[in-house]
Each structure stands twice: as structure tokens, then as C-alpha cells.
Amino acid sequence: MDVALYLGCTIPTQEYAYEVSAREVLPRLGVNLIDLQYAACCGQPLKGLDNLGWLYLASRTIALADQQGAETLLAICNGCHVSICEAKHVLESDDHLRKTIEEMLAEEDLEIKGHVRIRHLLDFLYDDIGPQKIKKALENSQNFNPLVNLKLAAHYGCHIIRPSSIERPDQLDDPSKLEALIEVTGASTAKYPERLECCGAPMLAIVDKESFQIAGNKLIAIQNRGFDGVITVCPFCERMLERQETISRVTGLDVSISSMYYTQLLGLALGIETEKLGLQLNMSSVEIILNKVTR
After folding, report:
1. pTM
2. Which residues contact 283 (CB under 8 A, 6 or more apart)?
3. Which conformational region is residue 33 in: left (phi greater than 0), alpha (psi within -120 to 50 degrees), or beta?
4. Is 96 helix (H, G, I), strand (E, B) or coil?
5. What are the strands of the beta sheet with 258-261, ordered from one edge?
6. Phi then psi dihedrals of residue 11, to 5 deg
7. What is the number of domains present in the chain?
8. What are phi and psi of 2, to 5 degrees?
9. pLDDT tens for each residue of 19-67
10. Do 28 and 56 belong together in one domain?
11. Which of 46, 123, 118 is nearest to 88 (CA)?
């Protein structure tokens, strides 16, 4: 399965562990990752300031995947994924804007042919590969290490289920794909009342104390419900949830819980060394999970 990997801005500049673990794990599921050449920002930071600039950058990402002959564009960042999906929706519904963007893309000899499927890690793993194939890959791994001692909370992040006006990787009211993928590793999970609440990251540049309070409230709720850790699929969410020393200092809450990417969790179940999964780069107390992973 040939897939064009789009990392956006945050992953290759701050959240290296997501890329490291994705590159280590996905090929073991039969995925051939193609680096998206000449990729730039997805445009999301511009959306409220320059609508045309946003639309061009997001559309350009789709056109690059088209140019490289990829059938699937895998955007593993929630923000990048929603930006590209919104752009696709605009291009399909507004002929005037589509023509403008086509003219702009033509200056780079780019065009959108309409062949590329846009996927996030969540629906790519659950819908395209499927839990049964992942389970089979785990069982066939010589180092398979079922994570039976772990109870883990799923954190989806806002953009993976919103806005509901465009197709999202999971349903708004009661998403379940991340829980299903967690259970494939052998770990247990449970739905909890706070699971769809925001991590606070979108507010960080404006009202930082309130942002840390939102994150702290969610993490404390997860701790108090007996989870060993929280699993994310978004670099913005992970960056926020793992800043637990700052959260504790600002809010006065005693926060200490493991936070990691699903790709890292899956890598642990496959028996991959922690360094190859970038777990040494995580800022949260990943030892809470690692100490419960039997070898």
C-alpha cells in the first residue's frame, strides 16, 4: 500500500516522536510510506487571516500528492487533516474559488486531478487497514508483547470529530475507533465523561493559564478514573498533555500520568525498542506505562 505521508509543521519541528514511531510501525503493517516532496504548511494558521492563502496551501498539498501518483494522502496531524479536508470541500462546492486555485497551482505546474483520498491515522488504521489485520500483524510478530496490564484512556482531540459539516475520521457524538485500536494491542480501555473535552491547546497563545487549567482538569479526571495513561493521535494535543510539570505548577494540580501516541503504543505491542519509537522524547511520565509492559 503506497501512501504519501504529510507531516505538516508541528511534527517535524517539535513532535518528532510521532514521525519516528509512525515510520517504524506503519511499514510493519504493509504500508510503503512516500515522502511528500516540496510540501509546505497546510495553511491552517492562515485561515482566519487570509482565506485564499489558506485554501491555496491546503490545495497545494493535495496537488503534490496527485503529482507523485499517490492514491492516499496520510495527514497524521488533526489540524492538517481538517484543513486539507475543508479545502477539498470548498473546491468541490465553489467553482469560482476552484478556478482561482487551479490558476495559482498552474504556476507551479500542479493540478488537482481528484484521485487522492485524504486520510488521518485514525481512519487509515481502522477503515483502510482494519483492526483484524493489525491484530494479525501483532500475532505474527516474533516480539509480540500484548499489553494486557494496561488500562488506557483515549483522547481524540477536537478536529478529528469536528466540524460535522465535513466528513471526519470518526463520528462526533460517540467516536469509538481509537478505543478499538487500543484494545487490539491487548490493553483495556473505557469511555469516560471527559473524553471528548478539549486539551486546551488552541487557547495557549491567548490565555495560557486557562489553557493549562483545561488540560489539567482533563488529566486529573483521567488519573482519578484509574487509567495508566492517555493515548493521542494529534501532535497539538500530545504537546499540550505532556507538559505536565508546567500544568501542575500553573494550576496547583498534581498531574503525573503517561501520555503517548497510538503509534508508540502499537510499537510497544510489536516489541519494538523504546528508542526506535521515540519514547525518550516524550515529556510525560511514560515510565508509568513502561513499568507495566511485560517483557
Report:
1. 0.97
2. 242, 243, 244, 245
3. beta
4. helix
5. 188-189, 151-154, 229-232, 258-261
6. -65, -50
7. 2
8. -90, 125
9. 999 999 999 999 999 999 999 999 999 998 999 999 999 999 999 999 9
10. yes
11. 118
